[in-house]
Amino acid sequence: MQGQIDKILQQQEGSFAKKGIGWGLLAGLGWGLDCTLMGMALGMAPLAGGISLFAAPLVGSCLHDGFAALWIFLKNFVDGRWRDYLRTLRTRPARFILIGSFLGGPIGMSCNLLAIYFAGASYTTAITAAYPAIGALLGAIFLKEKISRRVWVGIFTAILGSFVVGYVPPAGDQYPHFYLGIGLAAVAALGWAMEGVFSTYGMDLVDSDIAIGIRQLASFIVYFFVVLPIAGSVAYKILLESLTSPVFLFIAGIAMVGSISYTSWYRAMNMTGVGRAMGLNVTYALWSVLFGWLLVNLTITPNLLAGVILICIGTILTIGSPKDLVNLRSK
Q1: Which of 176, 202, 222, 237 has its CA 20 to 30 A from that of 138?
Q2: Domain interval for residue 301
Q3: Is residue 13 part of a domain?
Q4: Number of domains present in the structure of the chain
Q5: Inter-axis angle of helices 246-272 and 274-281, to 10 degrees?
Q6: Are the C-beta atoms of residues 320 and 21 closer than 8 Å to each other?
Q7: Structure confidence by residue, pLDDT tens digits, 100-141
Q8: Distance CA 73, CA 98 (A)
Q9: Buried b vs exposed e over 264-288: b needs ≥16 C-beta within 10 Å?
C-alpha cells in the first residue's frame, strides 16, 4: 500500500516538474522578445533624445516594471485574488520575496543597465549570463536542491552559448571605465541569482502569481522613489515627456510580454527548482537572436550561430530525462 502511494506521489511530482519546465521555456522565450522590443523602445524619443544616456534606460525600466505590476495585478484581480496581496505582505515569506525583488529588480537591473553603459552590451550580456550557475549553486547550498551532473553540464553549456553570442572584443578606448562596468555586471548576475533563491524560498508558502505581483510592484516603487531621484531631475523630465509620446504605449505593450515572462519564471522556479528554471530562462539569448533577426534585421554571424547551437544543447541537457524530474527539489 505504501509503495503504491509513493508511486502516485512520484508521478504527481514528475507531472508538476514537467509543467515547470514548460513555464521555464516560456519564460526564456518571453524575455528574449521583451529584451528585443525594449531595445527598440530605447531607440525612440524621448528615451533616445540625447538628454541623458544614463537616465533614459532607468526610466524605461521604471515604466516597464510599473506596467508589468499593473498587468499582473489585473490578472490576479480578475481571478478574485487581489486581497492576497495584503494578506501575503503581512507574512514572513513576503519578506523574502521583497528582498528578492530588491536584489533582482532595482539592484540587478540597474547594475545591468549601468554595466551596458560603462562596458558595452556584449560583455555585460556575457557576464550576466552566468547568473543561472550562481543561482544553482546557491539553491543547492541554501535550498538543498538536488542537481544532477547532467543538469550542471546543461546549465554551463547554455551559459557558454550565451557568452559566445554576446562576446565581441572591445575596440580602442571606447569604454574608459570598462572594469567598473564588468564589476557592475557581476553584481547584476549575483542579484538575479539571489532573487531566485529568496523568492523560491518565499514561494514555499506563497502562490507564485502573487509573489511575482508583489515583486514587480516593489520594484516599480523603488525605481520611482529611489533610483530615479539618484539619476537626477533629468530622469523625471524624460519620464514626463514619455507620458505623451508613442513610446509610453509601446512599453505598456512590452510590459505585458514581460509580465508573462516573469510570471512563467516564478512558476518555473516554484515547480522545478532554481537551478533548472534559471538554466531554461537563459535561453532568452537564443530567442533574442531570433527576434532580433525577425524584427531589427540582426546579422547572423558565426559566433551567434555557434552560441545558439550551444544554448540548444545546454537546454536539452538541462531538461533531462523524465525519470529525473521527481528529484528536482528536495528540501
Answers
A1: 222
A2: 28-327
A3: no
A4: 1
A5: 140
A6: no
A7: 999 998 898 888 878 877 877 667 777 787 788 888 888 888
A8: 16
A9: bbbbbbbbbbbbbbbbbbbbbbbbb
